[in-house]
Write a structure and sequence with these properties.
The complex is a heterodimer. Chain A is an alpha/beta fold. In chain A, the strands form four sheets. An eight-stranded parallel sheet of chain A has the order 3-16-15-10-9-8-7-4. Chain A has a four-stranded antiparallel sheet with strand order 5-6-14-11, with no helix packed on it. A two-stranded antiparallel sheet of chain A has the order 1-2. In chain A, 28% of the residues lie in helices and 20% in strands. Chain B is α/β, with parallel strands linked by helices. Chain B has helices spanning 15-19, 100-106, 142-150, 176-180, 195-207, 223-236; strands at residues 24-36, 41-46, 63-68, 79-82, 85-87, 90-95, 113-120, 132-137, 157-163, 184-188, 216-220, 239-243, 259-261, 267-269, 276-278. The chains are: A alpha/beta, B alpha/beta. Bound molecules: flavin-adenine dinucleotide, flavin mononucleotide (FMN) and FE2/S2 (inorganic) cluster. Residues 63, 79-82, 93-96, 98-102, 139, 142, 245-248, 275 of chain B line the site of flavin-adenine dinucleotide (FAD).
Chain lengths: 303, 286
């Protein structure tokens, strides 16, 4: 069966991508599978300058999931372009760069650095960050700011498809998606993590030094499905489904509610060959369900 | 570094590809799960994961990530455990039940299936001619099983084990040669008041491996223990490696949840740049 998908200017050999921050720079996983078998992968969020991230502890396991407050530790755009990208199999699989910045200008500058890079298939904009210019409220919570950031990236992105990754920490995800569309987004991805916290009753301390962090893993899948379903039902843009994918069934559930592709995140931690196996498992499940292509079931939710 | 299959993947090799010989990620069955000291710890034996010829392509100090298949979706992460030994009995791990994951691992039975990847991370140095002090805090004893077994000149080894649980909970047979030669010292810390005596004991042994002796100190155990060892080694001018026990999600350098602060003030993954570090490469507060 043909698993390839094409949407928003992006063509993937299969619908399996890996989610930013859960797959390093890809290279970490080469002992466990062939990166070229993936539809693509999204690298760790990259900022203009290197960042050391948050104090420890940064992660806590929670029932069916985890919290993280890594704080966007990353090598910075320059080192990524010099040391990482040339070693990735970008001719054979889509390497998507996830952008992290704290102002629209910075987002634009960052996009400009990758616009001319042959090895970059698309740019994904992480709007779940505080806007330092506007008092630190998250961009992702304000449609006007989402539109401004998207436009700033799109202006400098050359011919790279721009994916805007939406935060579920909003009351109206469709308004956020529409703002990204107005800003010129080619593709939406959802969801990023849900803000949460965990407490140790014996020490009376929060389990994360940052106190709050982002919840991910199977626990968030119902929220992810709901968001993707709302977005895909209301807007003409293609959507990449993210959140709690731990099996081929989970992936096809996202396709049924309207996703063109999926990103697997936290499941990569449960076993490092997860994403590679997911490709095979989706093919097997699709065959079992008698699907000729993913287009045949996309949005096919019976309500 | 031992011989073995090197992973050559498109272009330059990553740090982990240079230092790892043969990593696998595979499902394995439990061969035996033997309670030690009435279940205070467990000697978990698994099928040999087949890390290259003779199972020798791992080095003491390295670890595996282990996740029982029965965890389903409930417990998200695998748990890191030092490789104690790989021998005819299979892959040996020593498990101390310390929480919801390790409590369940303690309940695994022969035939149960786990998912496991490794060998991971850095290892302890072996300097055959150097007087070497092995300092174990509790289950931190595990990596020294393989270390002592492989050391070409065991006469140069001395081991100190500090423990709060019963000594019967520790696999001490592999250390019989050291014990026989009077080079195995154990200290039972029953109350907090014993701590000073333990630190004094550590200090005496470290002094024998300090600047004058050009010795080597290798330590594995809980964080506070490692920080004490580091302080004492710095004072004695002893070269020292410590194995950090930071919480881990992926074990392969991808999540950045396990970082330690290095001497340059940078956050480095303790799963790939460690778990074994020279203390001189770590920040004061690592
Ligand atoms: C490189 C390495 C080697 C290790 N080798 C061994 C070994 O040989 N034998 C052994 O019994 N244990 C070993 N550990 C520790 C073991 O991994 C933890 O005890 C285990 O992960 C705790 O899981 P849990 O679900 O039982 O505890 P949880 O319920 O998650 O937590 C219980 C307690 O353990 C702490 N904790 C949680 N995760 C870790 C972690 N990864 N490391 C340290 N503390 C943690 C928590 O803060 C809490 O205080 C090693 C850890 C590392 C990083
Ligand atoms: C440890 C960790 C780090 C993450 N880092 C980023 C990041 O840098 N940029 C980003 O857009 N999302 C980041 N995410 C969010 C994931 O990409 C994903 O949206 C989220 O985890 C939900 O998917 P999952 O349930 O499959 O993990 C991170 C998630 C985790 C668990
Ligand atoms: S445990 Fe994930 S980076 Fe070390």
């Amino acid at each position: 069966m043909d698993l390839s998908v094409s949407f928003g200017g992006l063509t993937l050999k299969n619908p399996v991508l890996t989610a930013s921050g859960t797959f390093g720079y890809g290279l970490e996983f080469t002992p466990y599978g062939d990166l070229a078998r993936l539809g693509g992968f999204v690298v760790k969020g990259i900022s203009l300058l290197p960042r050391e991230g948050n104090p420890m502890p940064r992660i806590a396991e929670t029932p069916c999931g985890m919290l993280n407050a890594i704080g966007l530790q990353n090598v910075g755009a320059e080192v990524f372009l010099r040391d990482k990208l040339p070693r990735l199999p970008w001719r054979e699989t889509a390497v998507v760069v996830n952008l992290y910045a704290c102002s629209a200008e910075e987002f634009g500058d960052l996009a400009g650095l990758f616009a001319g890079e042959e090895g970059v298939a698309a740019l994904e904009v992480n709007v779940s960050c505080p806007n330092v210019r506007e008092g630190g409220a998250a961009f992702g919570a304000d449609p006007a700011q989402i539109a401004a950031v998207t436009a700033a990236v799109k202006r400098r992105a050359g011919d790279k498809p721009v994916i805007v990754k939406l935060s579920p920490n909003v009351t109206d995800i469709v308004a956020a998606g529409r703002a990204a569309m107005d800003g010129g987004a080619d593709i939406l991805s959802a969801i990023n993590t849900l803000t949460g916290m965990a407490v140790d009753v014996r020490t009376r301390r929060p389990r994360l030094a940052n106190v709050v962090g982002g919840l991910s893993g199977p626990a968030v899948k119902p929220v992810g499905l709901r968001c993707v379903w709302q977005l895909a039902s209301a807007l003409p843009l293609p959507v990449i489904g993210i959140g709690g994918i731990a099996s081929a069934e989970d992936a096809l559930e996202y396709v049924l509610v309207g996703a063109h592709a999926v990103q697997a995140g936290t499941a990569n931690f449960s076993r490092p060959d997860f994403a590679f196996r997911l490709v095979d498992d989706i093919a097997a499940l699709a065959a079992e369900l008698g699907l000729d292509s993913l287009d045949a079931c996309r949005g096919g939710l019976r309500t | 570094m031992g011989a073995g299959v090197r992973l050559i993947v498109r272009g330059a090799k990553t740090l982990s590809e240079r230092t790892m010989e043969h990593k696998t990620c595979t499902s394995l069955r439990i061969v035996e799960n033997r309670p030690l000291g009435g279940g205070a710890q467990y000697l978990l034996s698994l099928e040999n994961p087949g890390w290259g010829a003779g199972g020798k392509t791992w080095r003491p100090g390295q670890f595996v990530m282990l996740r029982p298949v029965s965890w389903g979706l409930e417990l998200t992460w695998a748990r890191p455990f030092s490789i104690a030994q790989v021998d005819e009995g299979g892959l040996r791990l020593v498990i101390r039940p310390a929480g919801r994951g390790t409590d369940r691992i303690a309940g695994l039975a022969p035939g149960d299936e786990v998912f496991l990847w490794g060998p991971l991370g850095t290892s302890f140095v072996t300097e055959p001619e150097t007087p070497t002090l092995l300092l174990a805090g509790g289950v931190g004893l595990a990596p020294f099983w393989g270390y002592a077994a492989r050391h070409p000149a065991p006469a140069n080894l001395r081991l100190v084990l500090g423990h709060t649980i019963d000594l019967a909970a520790f696999p001490l047979d592999p250390f019989a040669p050291l014990a026989g030669a009077g080079r195995l010292h154990t200290f039972h810390q029953r109350t907090m008041a014993d701590l000073d005596a333990f630190i004094a004991l550590l200090e005496r042994h470290i002094a024998d491996h300090g600047r004058a002796a050009n010795g080597l100190v290798l330590a594995c155990g809980p964080g506070p223990f490692l920080r004490t060892v580091r302080r004492l080694c710095d004072a004695a001018g002893a070269r020292c490696q410590v194995s950090l026990e930071n919480r881990m999600a992926c074990g392969i350098g991808a999540c950045l949840g396990c970082v330690a602060r290095d001497a340059a003030g940078r956050n480095v993954q303790s799963c790939t740049r460690g778990p074994v570090f020279w203390t001189r490469d770590l920040a004061e507060e690592f």
